[in-house]
Design goal:
The chain has about 375 residues and is mainly alpha-helical. It has 19 helices and no strands. α6 (about 150-170) packs antiparallel against α9 and α13 runs antiparallel to α14.
Length: about 375
């Protein structure tokens, strides 16, 4: 029987009955194996520089000798314990996250001195703002206009006053402050003074100088709005005041926006949001509903609702009586355009309130009520929706 020749392929192919031997570890790989890292630490290339070289290489020995200092500095002296624990390794590891340093407590005397110093500087800047604003508002000469540098200086002055107020609130409302120190802001009416002298008086000056002051007014509105938003987040003790101020700043922004309808709608929504939030916190304050009524234009039904509410709450807003007349006058003597905005029922509903509030055209009260009480289906058919 002829013997079976062994081909080169048969020598290379292992027998199926034998399992393949595990791959052998490369000799070169042993020289570059990373050591097992210490628990709780991260591997870094610098930490592995020495171990990645072969121990018997001259370059490694030389580098070890050169890297060994002849004398150790005081902070590198060995610890008393002979063996270093894993906790000690983690403390000396440069890759370990450093904890937040503890803040040193401040004493009441230091806090009082800080508040006094801030208030002294605040009063100086405040008196300067009052003096300049009054002087500028009293000028009726149209030729006496402020240039760009003068407007920038006034904005910087009022910005400084806002920052002084912010520092005062942070210091007086500090968590370590005593109750007496916390009451200082309310005692001296600091939120109202900040709005009156730091924001409102200057905004009125800018408004009376429009359109020349438009760009400066926009800049200051954004500046004041960001400061009020910061106070709303960091000084919650006067949250109600900050909310209403944010709504007022939104109304100023609406008043000077004539070009971009989308911007006007966005700022209307922003201002309405803050006033609604304020009215939720103070539902008995009629002033807030009056602001919402102004933002509701030209929706006559919403205006009627908010004006009525501003007069009927526990703390009514007297100016709403004059404002609601501006809503009723066009209804009492409607133009074709005014009447087309409202359906027959809506127009009759508002007019009934106008007649009863003003006591005018009382002879038309019954007919107006009949128009409102007309069957709804007929009203829908008349307006073209049925």
């Amino acid at each position: 029987r002829p013997s079976r020749r062994s081909t080169p392929d048969s020598k290379r192919q292992p027998s199926r009955s034998c399992s393949p031997s595990p791959p052998k570890k490369s000799k070169a790989r042993a020289e570059f194996d990373r050591p097992s890292p210490v628990k709780g630490t991260l591997w870094t290339p610098d930490a592995d520089t020495m171990t990645s070289q072969r121990p018997y290489e001259k370059s490694n020995i030389t580098s070890q000798v050169l890297s060994t200092p002849t004398s150790k500095p005081p902070h590198c002296q060995p610890r008393t314990s002979t063996s270093r624990s894993s906790t000690q390794v983690e403390e000396n590891d440069p890759t370990e996250l450093i904890k937040q340093p503890e803040t040193r407590p401040i004493s009441q005397d230091q806090l009082v001195a800080e508040v006094k110093g801030i208030y002294a500087g605040l009063v100086m800047v405040e008196s300067k703002c009052i003096e300049i604003d009054n002087a500028q508002n009293s000028q009726n000469d149209p030729t006496n206009k402020l240039n760009n540098e003068q407007w920038q200086a006034l904005i910087a002055l009022h910005r400084t006053l806002l920052h002084e107020h912010y520092d005062f609130f942070l210091a007086s409302q500090h968590p370590s402050a005593s109750p007496a120190l916390r009451r200082l802001a309310s005692k001296y009416a600091m939120p109202a003074r900040m709005w009156r002298h730091g924001i409102h008086s200057f905004l009125e000056l800018l408004r009376h100088r429009l359109p020349a002051s438009l760009e400066h007014m926009l800049m200051f509105i954004y500046l004041a709005y960001s400061m009020m938003a910061l106070l709303y987040e960091t000084v919650p003790a006067f949250e109600d005041t900050w909310i209403e101020c944010l709504g007022d700043l939104g109304r100023y922004r609406i008043a000077i926006e004539d070009d971009d309808i989308r911007d006007r709608e966005n700022w209307t929504a922003v201002s309405r949001h803050w006033y609604s939030k304020a009215s939720d916190k103070a539902p008995t304050t009629g002033r807030l509903y009056h602001h919402l009524a102004i933002l509701a234009r030209p929706n006559a039904l919403q205006q009627l609702y908010y004006y009525t509410k501003s007069l009927c709450v526990a703390i009514p807003f007297g100016s709403a009586r004059e404002s609601i007349i501006t809503l009723f006058d066009p209804i009492m003597a409607p133009t074709p355009n005014q009447q087309s905005r409202l359906s027959v029922a809506e127009f009759a509903f508002v007019k009934v309130h106008a007649v009863m509030f003003s006591s005018k055209q009382m002879d038309k009260l019954q007919s107006t009520m009949d128009d409102f009480l007309r069957p709804p289906r007929q009203d829908i058919r008349l307006t073209g929706h049925g």
